[in-house]
Design goal:
By secondary structure, this protein is of the alpha/beta class. The protein has ten helices and ten strands. It starts with a strand and ends with a strand.
């Protein structure tokens, strides 16, 4: 299984395959969060989300209009809607039907509002980072609210898929929402470095795109083993055994 972070930017792309939509696993929990967010006025919500007034207004309206059930008329497809560096690297537009079917089974996107999303899940646009300081009932923040639920769900799906490997391509903020010590699988975190003045360094904007490239590489090659991930070579990256460890696979490239 692969885990990714969501994107702050949401749009829409045309996909090359017919899609049968699925519903997010934790819609009831999402509705609990939405009800809490509706308690904020527009200015308060803008401050909570730490966005400019225009985005504050947009998201205030999103939460006012948020409704279930999700349909293809009031919702978008997860993998077709997220933008940003990671998803530009993933480039869902070029995936074929077999790729999508593999992704639906193996790719999970962590979310502050939805907990966990599959590529074909319908969802309504939102802005809510996992680190947002929002209390929900007895839970003091979103990490507390989601950690047990998404950890159990990932373990459940790993078992269903007969998999003992989790590829962590999420950011630290989202990966921290997992009770990773309770994940019943080997966890591999790929790391992407660029040579800069002779030293291989992590450059955040390039690493984000590389996480998307790696996701596409795993999907299109239907990779299920840690060893085969080491063959990743998109856009000049090469596996570095000397920089890698049992839990971290390091890939480097020259400018």
């Amino acid at each position: 299984m692969i885990i990714l972070s969501p994107s702050k930017t949401i749009g829409s792309v045309k996909l090359q395959s017919e899609i049968t939509p699925s519903q997010p696993v934790f819609l009831n929990q999402s509705f609990e969060i939405v009800k809490e967010l509706r308690k904020f006025n527009e200015k308060e919500l803008t401050n909570l989300l730490d966005v400019n007034p225009k985005l504050g207004r947009l998201n205030y309206e999103r939460y006012v209009n948020w409704q279930i059930p999700f349909t293809t008329k009031n919702s978008g497809f997860t993998l077709a809607s997220f933008r940003g560096d990671v998803y530009e690297g993933l480039n869902a537009e070029i995936l074929n039907r077999a790729d999508f079917e593999f992704a639906q089974k193996q790719l999970r996107i962590l979310s502050g509002l939805y907990g966990i999303l599959r590529p074909f899940d319908l969802f309504q646009p939102y802005r809510l980072e996992m680190g947002t300081k929002l209390g929900i009932g007895k839970y003091k923040n979103l990490f507390d609210f989601w950690s047990g639920a998404i950890t159990q769900q990932i373990n459940k799906e790993l078992k269903q898929n007969g998999s003992d490997l989790l590829i962590n391509l999420a950011s630290k903020e989202y990966y921290s929402a997992l009770e990773f010590k309770n994940i019943r699988a080997k966890i591999i975190t790929p790391e992407f470095r660029q040579f800069n003045n002779g030293n291989p360094k992590v450059i955040p904007i390039l690493a984000k795109r590389a996480r998307g490239l790696m996701t596409r590489f795993i999907i299109t090659n239907q990779i299920t083993s840690a060893e085969n991930i080491q063959h990743f070579d998109y856009e000049g990256y090469c596996y570095s055994p000397e920089l890698s460890s049992e839990s971290t696979q390091v890939f480097v490239r020259h400018t």
